[in-house]
Design a protein that fits this description.
With about 200 residues, this protein is of the alpha/beta class. The chain folds into 2 domains: about 140 residues, HAD superfamily/HAD-like (Rossmann fold), CATH 3.40.50.1000; about 50 residues. Helices cover about 40% and strands about 15% of the residues. Strands 3-2-1-4-5-6 form a 6-stranded parallel β-sheet, with helices on both faces. Helix 7 links the parallel strand 4 and strand 5. Helix 4 packs parallel to helix 8. The two termini are about 15 Å apart. The structure holds magnesium ion (MG). The site of magnesium ion has 7 residues, from loops.
């Protein structure tokens, strides 16, 4: 059986931060830059829980995620990795976005992923600590051997489970002053992902 790589979608395969700030700037007259992005949307928008909820629904209902740019550099790397590994996409996107997400993935990464797994983190009642939750249940359930994700918290959670983890890119939101655990390696881009796996 092939080993499994769990691969995040937003800001690994899809230009989520860029799309999110563009939508927010146009819709709510803000002046955000992609570097201002955090998974804690309420903090980016500087709004309370009620307004966060309202805006999150509006953003999801708009279908804007269907327009997010894909990462051109990912496809050839994924095609090579697919020869040796089973690839699963793992996302915290809300289930209301499932159809759009599946369609988008099929459009840009056709035939690459065995499936897309949703954490459901943001599907229950929203509260202001949800952004602290991780994908660890998905990692365990699907027995992943490797994780590629741009959110430090998911990488740290994976490392806790003994999973070899690639912290994707150098984003403002995934910096830390602390040394990364041995199981977490930062990769600058998709070429670095390829080099990592070629060395395995
Ligand atoms: Mg992400």
């Amino acid at each position: 059986m092939k080993q499994i790589i769990g691969i995040d979608i937003d800001d690994v395969l899809a230009a989520n931060a860029e799309g999110f700030v563009k939508f927010s700037n146009e819709r709510w007259d803000m002046h955000l830059r992609p570097e201002d992005y955090k998974e804690h949307w309420a903090e980016v928008w500087k709004v309370d829980l009620k307004e966060f909820e309202r805006r999150a629904i509006e953003l999801h209902d708009s279908g804007v995620i269907a327009t997010y740019r894909h990462n051109d550099a990912a496809l050839p790397v994924l095609q090579e990795l697919k020869q040796s590994y089973t690839l699963l996409a793992m996302t915290s996107r809300q289930l209301v976005s499932e159809q759009l997400t599946r369609h988008w993935m099929e459009k840009h990464y056709k035939g690459i992923f065995d499936d897309i797994k949703f954490t459901g983190i943001f599907d229950g009642p929203l509260d202001l600590s949800l952004h602290l939750r991780t994908k660890s249940d998905l990692f365990t359930e699907h027995k992943v051997t490797y994780v590629i994700d741009d959110q430090l918290k998911h990488c740290l959670a994976a490392a806790e489970l003994g999973i070899d983890t690639l912290l994707f890119s150098n984003y403002t939101w995934n910096q830390t002053d602390e040394a990364l655990p041995e199981k977490v390696v930062r990769v600058s881009d998709w070429q670095a992902v390829l080099e990592y796996f070629r060395a395995q």
